[in-house]
Amino acid sequence: MPDTMITVLTSGNSLGAYVPGVRLSQILEQQGVACSVEVLETLFPDEVRMNMVKTKALFHQSFQAALMGHRLAKDIGPVFDPVRECELLQRWVKEHRTRFVAITGFWIPVLEKYSCLISDPIDVQFVRLDAVDTPSYLAYQDRYGKYSHQWLFQKEDEQYKLHMRLKMLDSPIIAWHERDNRIVVHGGGWGIGTYQQTIQPLQAHYKLDLVAYTPHEQSHARSQDTLYWLEAEWHPWTNPLRSERTTFPPMSHNRHSTLEQDSSLTIPTISQAAASSIAIVSKPGGGTLIDSLSGATPLIYLEPFGEHERHNAACWRALGFALSYEEWRQSGFDPSILEELHLNLMEHINLIPNYGEDYACNLKAMQR
Question: Comparing C-alpha atoms, which of 224, 196, 205, 172 is closest to residue 332?
Fold first, then answer.
């Protein structure tokens, strides 16, 4: 096991955390850093994972139920299957894992146990995907301070600041005049929120790239729209439980009424669609903001899911990257407003480093 092996700790609870984690591992490997990915839900008993799938379906049907469930989030350490957790920790000990990059705070109890099993100190950095603490960190507020935290953007001293971006694609940012006159509409990594209510009003003005989370939602697309959907039997923990490599979610789409399936699982499909569009319409989740910053694509934000997303929306608005859906609707869905937001994004992007590349560079410098 190379000394520079980085273990990326992600979660399959939301694609908004899972996809950035997989992308980060991809960037690190491109920079010559050995890397592996662990998905938190592989530590859960089978019945807990089954209940997660049912809960997500309930939350998709009811945004109010999702908001209530969000408020009940707590330490999930007691949920872990002790046998699976022990097997993971013993494997890390055997492979002498010492460097970790975590996407969610829910890995804290596992890291605490692991640090007691080895003599060497462990180096842990949490990559913060939201402007303030999310439930996965609030549950460990009195314990997470001992670790390093790299915020991509942050509420700091009553101001919102931009620090870094996570590039979701290897390709350069698409110039505004070369973009498709399309809008990406989705419900974030959980498929929740008020996005379905925006579809018909937007269709009167734009072609849409729609993410469908149920077969019924597929009927919302017109012939000029592109519909994306996830394979029903796939979950972020599917490959890890089979000891297979983690991949981006396998998506299908039907552009020009032709059904196509992703031939490659090495590119995040929705990130790619967002990078070529003129706006993303969604709730302001961390994964959505990452796509917005990665492709310099404006965000038209919907009702936030929880306090952290409220701050995400305020952050993007303060930086000049976003507008609320209601404000844009009142403008008659004016496209010139979007171009102004895009130019603001481009101006800031040119001033900040890229997280994965920066992390790899610092790691190599330490080992010289």
Answer: 205
